[in-house]
Amino acid sequence: MEKKESTPFLEHEQRSSSHRVTAQLRVLVMPSVDGGFVAQGLEVDYLATGATLDEVQRNFANGFLATAEAILRRGRDLTSLFKSSVPIEAWQQYIASGRKDTLVCQTVLDIQDRLPQGTPFATLAFCQPAAA
């Protein structure tokens, strides 16, 4: 997987009568209460942890892709994976904190070579609250 410069969240391309849409999977990276970091997919039901930013990003990317590949090997489609089940309590806790964060997605990994052709997601964008 190669790291890329930040790319648009959603891109649409039209060639004569065909259309192609590619999108980033956004991953929220936050400090863990136990130390280290937690990475939670915003569009996908997947979570990973790691001691450092690099480790949590690597763990999320490798684990997410391994999960997607296992689903495909079983002859199932990926639709079950592409919905977020972020616990409502997590959102409530974040909202109640009064934080006014702007998420900045700086690290982008190209994953399109590991997913089947036609999968609309081409990159993972790891996002964190911007420093105040």
Care to describe what's here?
This protein has 132 residues and is an alpha+beta fold. The chain has one domain. The protein is built from two helices and seven strands. Strands 1, 2, 3, 4, 5, 6 and 7 form a seven-stranded mixed sheet that branches. Strand 4 and strand 5 (47-50) form a beta hairpin.
Briefly, what is this?
With 132 residues, the protein is an alpha+beta fold. The protein has one domain (3-12, 26-129). The chain has helices spanning 53-73, 88-96; strands at 3-4, 10-15, 18-31, 37-41, 47-50, 103-110, 121-129.
Relevant terms:
alpha+beta, globular
Average pLDDT rating: 76
Strand fraction equals 35-45%
Low-confidence region ranges: 2-10
Which outline best applies? globular
Radius of gyration: 16 Å
Specify the structural class.
alpha+beta
